[in-house]
Structures
1.
Amino acid sequence: MKKIVTIFLCVLAIASCKQKSNDPDAEMNRFINDLMSKMTLEEKVGQLNLPAVGFDVTGPVLSKDVDTKIRKGMVGGVFNTFTPDAVRKLQSIAVNETRLGIPLIFGYDVVHGHKTIFPVPLGLSSSWDMELIQKVAHASAVEASADGLNWTFSPMVDIARDPRWGRVSEGSGEDPYLGACIGKAMVKGYEPLIFSCVKHFALYGAGEAGRDYNTVDMSRQRMYNEYFPPYKAAIDAGASTVMTSFNEIDGMPATGCKWLLTEVLRKEWGFKGFVVTDYTAMMEMVNHGVGDTLKVGELALNAGTDMDMVSEIFADHGVELVKSGRVSEKTVDAACRRILEAKYKLGLFKDPYCFVNQEKADKEIMSADKLELSKEAAIKSMVLLKNDNQVLPLNPGQKIAFIGPQVKRQRDLIGNWSGAGDWHKSVTLWNALEEEYGKDKFLYALGCNLIDDKGLIDKLNPHGAELYPSEKTPQQLIEEAVHVARQAEVVVVALGEAFGMSGEAASRSNIGLLNNQVELLKALKKTGTPIVLLLMNGRPLTLEWEDENMDAILEAWFPGTQGGYAIADVLFGKANPSGKITMTFPRNTGQIPIYYNHKNTGRPFDANQKYTTKYLDISNEPLYPFGYGLSYTTFEYGKIVLSGNQLDAGQSLTASIDVQNTGKYAGTETVQLYIRDKVGSVTRPVKELKGFRQVTLNPGEKKTISFTITENDLKFYNADLKFVAEPGEFDVFIGGNSRDTKQTTFVYD
Ligand code: NOJ
């Protein structure tokens, strides 16, 4: 018997040994257990503090005496410090001058590039090219990590249906499926080189009236079906951190919302990383009206917030909260552990200076391959919204006039969230034209100031909206432009927003071109010379008049460091535009919120019936629908062919369609698959994107594009928030945008 027991114990020991060696986190856990056993409560609380050092603040508060606080062990990470020298300086205080020498983590907003700036995210999303997006994120991570950073506050995956909200420029538009694909691609591009941070959790894009930081109120069903998918996808892809949003969820600011941060994020979704607040979001809970500083600290810690960006409430009150029993030490331990784990995984305990390497910085920052990628991304982001009579592409043999402030302005090219980017290094359209075609090849006139609204300029400063206003009167500028346009065979008018007109704290109640810009267009229209309107902006604009009156419209967004080269290539046909908008362009602001995947309602639109859902003064239809974008060539779609008319549980169906290039240029088309669940236990959208494929075709070439449809594509969160597919009839739509599609039906049983 004794022998049997001994053998049994041996087997058990071997098994547990095996288990230990198979546990990839065993070594990390041992290390952190050991470290934490030496830490005082004060030191643990210190790890939860993230002050900002530097100039790029996005709120009224700037952290003070950060060096001293690091020395006292009161800082876990630093936001806003980069360059090898600056990082080394702070890191060495943490490592050499604190009791336990715990290294800092360094975070920053590397949102669409670090030094090499890529198109703003809304633009990049218009490429629908996941490989490109991943490459862009990776290139950004390489540059950031070479500059001392190991954590980016990106991707922003907030679904946005209201273009009045300036921050639509930082996200991927209105669609949960596409948003999820993009969130995933970005996380895979950043990690594991640096840590990503999924933001803003949650629902930040749904602020009432499109006003930044405004109240959100939403049903759980809408959250789960329409707003949560991109956050979840980014987390499933391995995002290491999550940022809370400024807004409230069910009446509680996200930073103090236990349901969101613990029940959903950690328990339902299994998130293992750490949660940081947005900039001063914790102290803003006082303004929200849920308690004083002590109370909001308690709410935040108990909700599952781990790190406090800039409020310093954890640093000031963390110890007191534990000592008074309002927060358990276990809760602080858990938060501290998550932050230490992050540092361990980044390799900072092995080498606190592993991100500090001047040689690498010199080699990687703005390297030729990154500049090339920036140009490629800008080309693929551009969306051709209109092109009558094939006025584009231009022919350099034509007499062409370039008019408008965005022909020569440098600053706007890199957009708003280009924190570390140097706009002096961005290439304007005019630079690119001169380089490629010589100095006096084209005509030029300014035409108007970008902004002629004094109030707006004041509001935009110090974000430098109008850097080079002309001394001339608006009338003189227009007269000059008209004179130039009369000499030309075609004019390109480059207009849009100043970079500070979209982005954070940049909501607009009117999202059309500014009046002075429209006045210019009206005067030019009278010359009869064909007009190409070239737009640079960070949000969908209302362009009804422009759509009626311009010959072509090319949306270039804020295209990044190499923007000028990219635009020149597209205008002259060296590249064929292939971008498709990821946010609906409304006809006017009265239609907002407007999005393709809306519900049918009980009284769907019927032009012949008064009592149906519509406006008296405008169509329900957007100006340009989600997924829309033209090419210099044309694509014709055949009929959808299904592999069967029935999808059985656990099986799949194939939906195929022939796509042919029927024009004169080689081009890339994004073929989109939408599905409609015709009858549900709860109401379902009229259409939902469920897949897309990109295909490049030569003139005349035809290819069959196939999609596999599985049960999973039919699933949604029902009234009990269960993710289910329900038997019944489904419509399938395939086309080049969400409006112009072929259609067929199948049954799911
Ligand atoms: C506030 C913004 O909401 C957030 O996106 C950003 O990461 C932080 N400021 C830090 O700059």
2.
Amino acid sequence: MKIKHYTPSTSNLAYSVGVTLDRFIKMKQDDFPYASGELSQLLRDIALASKIVNRETNRAGLSNIGGAFGNTNVQGEEQQKLDVIANIRFTRAMTKGGEVCAVVSEEDDEVIDLQNKSGKYVVAIDPLDGSSNIDVNISIGTIFSIYRRVTPIGSPIQAEDIMQPGNQQVAAGYVLYGSSTMMVYTTGNGVNGFTYEPSLGEFFLSHPDMCAPKDGKIYSINEGAFNFFEPGLKNYLEVCKNRTYSARYIGSLVADFHRNLLKGGIYIYPSTSKAPHGKLRLLYEANALAFIAEQAGGKATDGTQRIMDILPQSLHQRTPLYIGSMKMVDEVEGILKVHRTLV
Ligand code: AHG
Ligand code: MN
Ligand code: MN
């Protein structure tokens, strides 16, 4: 019998489809010889749930899952049906996987104990971000942070397992349901982006080793609240206008963040005289994106302090957020500081 060694075909007739998310996760796991594979499995569980949410998001205009659910969440915000559906999908996927012991979700007032005795991870999640955009067919997202529990595996969940600062994240990511669906994540060793191929039902590596431009010309902020901004921020916005920067604001944090990550820019959701802590939530919005921003060479602060060093005091705590290209965040921080010391 003759045996021939396989050599990859270079034929144009069958181009390579690339690296799937599953294979990429496996390759990365192999870099850590003592890794037990649970984090990898958890990332795959999240990816699977995101495919289901993607399917349901795509059908939202056709089926009866658009619009309000008729309930308000702990933030006092009206829940959309897809908020509820996405929360169930992600929580169920994590329950079945068995790697997660507890979940903090925007849509649940309390910590959910998944009753997984061997679960060593805690997940904070915004199952559907930008949900007011669902009914108008505009990009939405999912944001997640993964922590290792600090108390012994199998014992009752404690506050210290949940209230960890962002600098303790072992992984974080987001899914963007946009003109295409993407998953972007980090495990603290750079940032990689994957684009969903619906006909194959797989995410493929499309944006390896993502880097945030050091500077940019896009600013993203809801300027409707301008009258309630502090003087330093008003001043910074004048600077942006004098330089004819582009104002871009989708109103879905994931989508605004993603664009600025690729193109260079800053996203700001500030404190205002009406909302001194801003709007966005530390545990399941700001921390994950801060981890990704830093891993891509960008920066994330609350105007003075690094987001990932804030010690959470409550589950649904809010924080102002300045995030994006390093130079832009540095500049606005400098201007805020000057104005704050004048007061
Ligand atoms: P969510 O849909 O999870 O409640 O988040 C909405 C957030 C965020 O995605 C977006 O950037 C911001 O709210 C928009 O708020 P404004 O309408 O106040 O600008
Ligand atoms: Mn959100
Ligand atoms: Mn949400």
